[in-house]
Amino acid sequence: MQFIICGALSISSISVYQNIQITMRFLKRFVLILVSLFVLLLLVSFFLPSKVHVERSLQINARPQTVFAYLNNVKTYDKWMPWNQMDPNWKVVYGSKTEGKGAWFSWESEYGEVGSGRLTITECIPYNKVEVDLWFPEQPELRYCWALEPAGKGTKVVWHMFANLGNSPLDRYIGLFSNIVMGKHFNQGLGNLKKLSEANTAVINE
Questions:
Q1: Is 154 left (phi over 0), alpha (psi -120 to 50) or beta?
Q2: Nearest CA-CA partner of 54 in 131, 128, 169, 142
Q3: What is the pLDDT of the chain when averaged over all its residues?
């Protein structure tokens, strides 16, 4: 009887050992597949674009002077920029200058899509163009440009975004979806700008 019990224990031990070996082989293969996939994605990322350009446009039935006034004054941005309307509790700090080149404001928000950052007007050509730089913690460089073109009795507004993604593999993969994601926000912002501009045909002097 003792011999039978010992034999059974021995067989059981061998079975457990074999199961452990099978499990270890599976884990090794799984880890190898994950590592190979990671390396492949990393290599592919080097062939992805390092720069992104998104563009949307809209016809606004208002003079370029009226539209330009909203673009050139950062205190009006919360009236039409889509991100500014996502979090009514965000904290905003304006610089001493709020209009024209050098005007800026910074913000903080707990809402993930808004986050924290700073926007600065870097160039403005009256009734023609406004450019801004955007800074976000640990994010790629971003630049917006709003170009105004007279169109009949109204104005065609073209909203450009230029992003330098650098060498970050993650940022380059995210950049593949920029046209879809940012394009949606641009259309919303231009729609808001259209409503404001068409409702107020006088130049804003705030």
A1: beta
A2: 142
A3: 81
Task: Give residue 14's pLDDT.
Answer: 60
Residue 158 DSSP SS3: strand
8 and 72 belong to one structural domain: no
* Domain range enclosing 126: 50-199
Q: Is 6 part of any domain?
A: yes
In total, how many domains does the chain have? 2
> Per-residue pLDDT for 119 more than 90?
yes
pTM, two decimals, is: 0.75
10 Å CB burial of residue 52 (0-12, 13-18, 19+) is buried
* Angle, CA 61 vertex, CA 60 and CA 66 arms, to 5°: 80
CA–CA distances in Å: residue 148 to residues 42, 52, 112, 129, 143: 40, 21, 31, 6, 17
